[in-house]
Structure formats: structure tokens, C-alpha cells
Amino acid sequence: VQLQASGGGLVQAGGSLRLSCAASGSTFSINTMGWYRQAPGKQHELVAGIRSGSSTTYADSVKGRFTISRDNAKNTVSLQMNSLKPEDTGVYYCHYRSIYMGNEYWGQGTQVTVSS
């Protein structure tokens, strides 16, 4: 499975950005896709995830501000990020995991910078 991420960039606090990720190759029908981030000086953390059945999970810090969605037919996942804060700054990584097989894959990171 190959993951191609897009989006990210520089935005002022309170602004919005949208990240997208497309999975290609030998994908699995039952899977979870999501976004992790690596912020400076902080641990790698799950930002949001969504299963192929559309159940979602969010980090507490982004609940109410970020929305994850997916298109199963296109094997894509998107993260709409609103009301961005400087602490949202980091490198965001698309993640894909086969729920039954356990295989997991990572996309290239995309930088999100929120200025105060």
C-alpha cells in the first residue's frame, strides 16, 4: 500500500487547513486510516482515525475542531482542520492499517505550521 498525502502549509491561528491522503496498491477492504502528528519536542500522537465502517476517533485536543472523513470507493481520507492553534503545529503523517492482517503503512509527512 502506498500513501500519498497532500495539503498542509502555513496558516494563522484560527484558520483552517485540509489534509488529504490517497491509498493505492494492494489495499485491504477492512482498514483504518488516519493522521498522526509529530510536534517539536512532543511524542508522536494520533490526531484522528476512521475505520472503513466510518467509526471515528479523535485526540481530545482536536475534538470539535477537526473532522476526519473518508471515501471508501477512492481509498482516500481527509482531515479538515478548523480553528487551528499554534500547538497544532507539526508534521502530519497519513496512516493506514489493515485491521485483520495488522499490516500498517505510513505516508510522507506534511508540515502544518500555525502562527500565533
Task: Tell me the layout of helices and strands.
Blueprint: E1 2-7, E2 9-12, E3 17-24, E4 31-38, E5 45-51, E6 56-58, E7 66-71, E8 76-81, E9 90-98, E10 104-106, E11 110-115
Parallel strand pairs: 2-11
Antiparallel strand pairs: 1-3, 3-8, 4-5, 4-9, 5-6, 7-8, 9-10, 9-11
Notes on the structure:
With 116 residues, the protein is mainly beta. 0% of the residues lie in helices and 57% in strands. It has strands spanning 2-7, 9-12, 17-24, 31-38, 45-51, 56-58, 66-71, 76-81, 90-98, 104-106, 110-115. The strands form two sheets. Strands 2, 4, 5, 6, 9, 10 and 11 form a seven-stranded mixed β-sheet that branches. Strands 1-3-8-7 form a four-stranded antiparallel β-sheet, with no helix packed on it. A hairpin with a 4-residue loop joins strand 5 and strand 6 (56-58).
Oligomer: single chain
Rg from alpha-carbon coordinates: 13 Å
Supply the helix-strand structural class. Answer: mainly beta
- What can be said about the biggest beta sheet? 7 strands, mixed
Q: What would the principal axes of the Cα set say about the shape? A: globular
Helices and strands, in N-to-C order?
EEEEEEEEEEE
Count of distinct strands? 11
End-to-end CA span: 37 Å
Count of DSSP-assigned helices? 0
Q: Provide the residue-averaged pLDDT.
A: 95
Any low-confidence stretches, pLDDT <50, length ≥5?
Answer: none
> Which percent bin holds the helix content?
under 10%
**What proportion of the residues form beta strands (DSSP E)?**
over 45%
